[in-house]
Amino acid sequence: MAQTVSSEILNSSLYGKTINVIGDSYVRNHLRPVEESWHAKVAKKYHMKYNNYGRNGVCIAFDRERFGKSLLTQYAQMNDSADYVLVIAGHNDAEFVKNNSDSLLIVSDAMDKLCKSLIAKYPSAKIAFVTPWNVPRQGFQQVIGVMEEICAKYSIPIFNAAKKSGIYVWDEAFRKLYFQSPNDTAHLNDMGHNLFMNKGEKFLLGL
């Protein structure tokens, strides 16, 4: 029996569109199925064509022997056709940067090049970024600040998940309930993705 699609879904800006999602383990969903991630759930809800290009451990700026090339290289592997391009990254860059100003400049330069490259590859797509959560370690606020600065330069929407997500990484009880393990500071479990989905969905609908 065919599934009935509500008029709200049919008339939305997302319905039936193609979305490419690229980034780190926030995208790949680490040890859990990709289908549990909030962006996959949004795509399913709106009957979108969903292409996931997430890779555990990847950075915006830094190549890593174990995890592969940075997004500056990997973005080219995405399908050329997309209505939406969502980049969720920065967590691993922050772990590299810590309090190193030279490394932060490398991230800034890579963000600039990545934004220009995505605009050139997808001139008619809606491009957007999502920052890491508010992880209480050195490097995170600095990298998030750079991401916001470069996105503003190119008028690319960015969701600051450190400020607006409602994901309380620093709270042990919260992590036990909503992360893939109590010591995890990056990867939501199914309940965590469900918790964040409404905010992620509103962000995409607002693009």
Q: Topology, pairings included?
A:
Elements: H1 7-10, E1 18-23, H2 25-28, H3 38-45, E2 49-54, H4 71-74, E3 84-88, H5 91-97, H6 101-121, E4 126-130, H7 140-153, E5 158-159, H8 161-164, H9 172-178, H10 190-205
Parallel strand pairs: 1-2, 1-3, 3-4, 4-5
Condensed summary:
The chain is 43% helix and 12% strand. It has 207 residues and is of the alpha/beta class.
Describe the structure.
This protein is an alpha/beta fold. The protein has one domain: Rossmann fold (3-Layer(aba) Sandwich). A five-stranded parallel beta sheet has the order 2-1-3-4-5. Strand 4, helix 7 and strand 5 form a beta-alpha-beta unit. The longest helix is centred in the middle third of the chain and has 21 residues. It starts with 6 loop residues before the first helix and ends with a helix.
